[in-house]
Amino acid sequence: xxxxxKLSHQSEINIENKIIGADYPCYIIAEIGVNHNGDLTLxxxxxxxxxDAGANAVKFQKRNLQxxxxxxxxxxxxxxxxxxxxxxxxxxxxxLSKEDYFDIVNYCKEKKITFLCTPWDIPSVDFLxxxxxxxxxxxxxxxxxxxxxxxxxxxxxxxxxxxGMSKIEEIEKMVNFVKKLEIPFILLxxxxxxxxxxxxxxxxxxxxxxxxxxVPIGFSDHEIGIIGSLTAANIGAVVIERHITLDKKMKGLxxxxxxxxxxxxxxxxxxxxxxxxKGKPIKKMTRAEVLQREVVSKSIxxxxxxDEGEIFSEENIEVKGPEKGLSAQYFFDIIGKKSPRxxxxxxxxxxxxxx
Length: 355
Fold this sequence. Notes:
The chain has helices spanning 40-53, 65-68, 71-75, 82-94, 98-111, 122-130, 146-153, 168-181, 205-213, 227-234, 261-278, 287-296, 331-334; strands at residues 12-15, 18-21, 27-33, 57-62, 114-119, 136-138, 159-162, 185-190, 217-221, 239-243, 299-302, 317-320. The chain is of the alpha/beta class. It has 2 domains: 12-278, Alpha-Beta Barrel (TIM Barrel), CATH 3.20.20.70; 287-354, Type Iii Antifreeze Protein Isoform Hplc 12, CATH 3.90.1210. The protein is elongated, with a radius of gyration of 30 Å.
């Protein structure tokens, strides 16, 4: 991949008064997706998992199968492929009702966590507008679906766009298209293999995308563990999205590549601790370091009595601990200078002795 010129756009996004950008804490999305298995009670339990872990948002998926697929394919799925037949059967089982979504949105408000959703088609966008979804996620499969993206842009709400299973030329074209729509958006680097092998994550693209596209860059991760997500957050991902489940062994499309509650909570905790470790690019000593330095660092002391006007040399000064006088880093700076005072053997040199 050749990184081209930097494109101008905004570097921060606001979703429900939460600022997302390089100077802010990583925005963590718990992707429930279809792991609720069409069960409202299970959906709420997964929201509780996200809240307990400290996630910023939960995300669901909304489909209108009649709009999404051809009538002939819905009536006779085996005319497409065996894989499609299996997928369609799964999707029919996991679809939540419209009433369920209203209940879920209210539950998210009660739990003080942001509700997000991926619409796979235009009717789903219209429905999500009814429940006032604050931002829209575009799945990797729809990254090239410009009609859907343009339709969503009419809401004037932020978009989070995944870039899995795509070529760099397609990403460039999509970014240019979305920028012309003048809608704030975030790109998510992704590998759309479920689960993704660790060596395929290639998170080093995250800072490269940030430089190239000048938009916030995040990471939608489908690995089994958490090291890829943690690494991505540490090198600049402003959003981390992970599928969650109550049990990886549950029946369903995405459970096996999702994080269980303890794993997801560990990820959130580690990201927040790593943010503390990053600190700010300002070098200063902590109070503990100051105390430690006084014990283990070194000063310049006299090896013998020194008269006023006598020349400092390696014959009459040496380095000893602890650091209570002139730092040993000035040892060679003071060599050849005249002593401004009379100094006794074993006495520390002072900063004034340098003048």
